[in-house]
Write a structure and sequence with these properties.
disordered N terminus; EGF-like domain-containing protein; 30% strand; disulfide bond; calcium ion binding; signal; polysaccharide binding; seven-stranded mixed β-sheet; mainly beta
Length: 696
Amino acid sequence: MAQITISAVAIAAAVLILVPVFTFTRGTVEAADPIGMPNCVISCGDVEVPYPFGIGANTSCYLPGFNLTCDNTTGSSPRLLLDADGTIQVLGIMNLDSGGYMYVQRNGDVKIKVDANGNGNGTFSQGLKHDGPYMLLTVLLPFRSELILMGCNVQATVKSGNATVASCTSLCDDTADYETSVIDRCSGGSTGCCRANIIKPGYDDDGRGEVYSSSSTAYDVQLRRLGGWNRSADRDRFPVRVFIAERGWFDNTSVSNDLLQTGRPPSKETLKVPVWLSWEVVDHPNRSSVCKSNHSQRGNGRKRGGYACACKNGYEGNPYLTDGCKDIDECEWSPALTGCYGECINTEGSFMCGCPPGTTGNFTIPGGCINTEDICRTSCGDVEVPYPFGIGSSKCYWPGFRLECYTGYQPPRLLLSNGRFQVVGISLHNSTMRVIRIDNLRPYTTLPTSMATDLGEEFPYFPDDEEVPYSLSTSNELVVTGCNAHATLVGHNNPAIISGCATFCYYNDTGGVWGEGSSTNGIHGENDGDKYCYGKGCCKARISESVDGMPKKLVFKWLDATSNSQSVFVFIAEEGWFDPWGVTGKLMRGGYRADAMKVPILLRWEVFLPHSGSSSANVSSHPDCNGGDYQVTPRDQICKSKHSQCKRGNRGYTCQCNEDGGYHGNPYLVGGCKDERAEYLKGEHQMLQTQFSYLH
């Protein structure tokens, strides 16, 4: 069996960028597993404090430089602080198994001590020392940091030691104002603010490969005022503020609007600035004793002698604790993440995947394992066939949704049961099916003054004893081309006119915009599509919603029996198809054309409850998607996915995934509605561990 190894944990890390209220947990690690050293405080408020971090005077509870402060003096929920002055508040510590990240909140902008010339210096945090463990996260998307500067004619530079890691210049011309700044979100130009990504320190400003520090803090901000402008006027237009923040924070409209307005100071809520930090173990005398778990690995860091611990692929937990890295049961994850759509067997640090007994095929794709005894095909040619539709055995489709795959063509064609219509697309989201006619359109020529045509051969035919799940979509139209003819589309309940229109021509109107000798059935005009279907020689009419399925009859009538020598075409087509010049030309030349016109039609479909009775009674008897006396619940029988909902139609029901909750897929299958956001976040975590292994 093929083996697939994957690392998985800490979806909560990526969830932070999606929701405003944060709860940090330890992923799938069981509650009984310790997260810190014995007899040590492991939480502050609702934030967990895993080793190597710790709280209090007991130095055995944390590694050097990883001691945090739990502030209980605010009178509200305790705050976990990184620095003594309370500037940096820790909101969460996560992803220890893939290197580790810390989500923090800096309270306020970077304070700059300005001299008489408007120049000055400040520091991001006294708690981030140059020789300490913490750094701004700069190497992984989407958690990077950026510099944001507001003010007129000033330049801000962020230094890490002697290396420049970010710099931008904010200018103000005569047109710079609040509205302009809000619109472009400081994307550049003379708008009174600017932004710049903070990069990973490499060479210092003197070209040395090892970053030299002349300061005790890790990130210092230098502010320089540009000459030639009125400093007082500039300050009045835009007060100078410097922020180091998570990239994307300033894109929040409420944040940028509050910061860029000058009528009042920004709110306290706005000044809660989110930032991502990474960390490394530095100046520890015994490297081998730090990564304690048997299934951990050590990666070299960016600082001198620094490194970080991570769990090996296939394990999750805390690599800094003995037995902290636990085996991941990959078989509990979604097949979209593991790539195993067959039978999954968990192993230590990995898993095995294969097709279950009695099946064969490709277990790495959805539906790849096929029952060797009764195969249900999920495609025909290049058209997917999602359940409730199916091909072959009756167990492959819901009653009334059988399709045929005709292999006489290359690629094969998917057909409705009567074979006259080819299926080119099925939409579960809209409950529609797009079909095209296979044969030519047949003209009405010399006929009686009026006639009614049964549409059994014009539209998909089904036996009388079979409930027909289809009806015409209102996105179709009735089209009549020719002279002096009237057509009416009729449903099953009398009277039930679904659509109708009439065409008119002058008696001797046979001119030719199509060229010499080519009849246009009386149509004149310029090369402009819609102009040819306003009633003169051609008409179109919208299709009304039908409550009783497919139309029953087409009633055709000559308005002038003396002028019926010209051919008249009457057909249903998807709205908008008839407008192109080429389509109009072929039909209006008159006569029977040998080349087939592929006329598209859009059908709506509904699913009926699995009990006998007329289709019209299917919904009227159970208007709330409930089986009533039959003890049938459509959610269980029709909408099989947990994250789906049943919707009432005209004659039956349709199912929809709960898209407001982020679910998409096939609601007619068990587990068919998938949370795409969760799948994305799981994939993001896999990427983080892969990048950690690559970077270290």
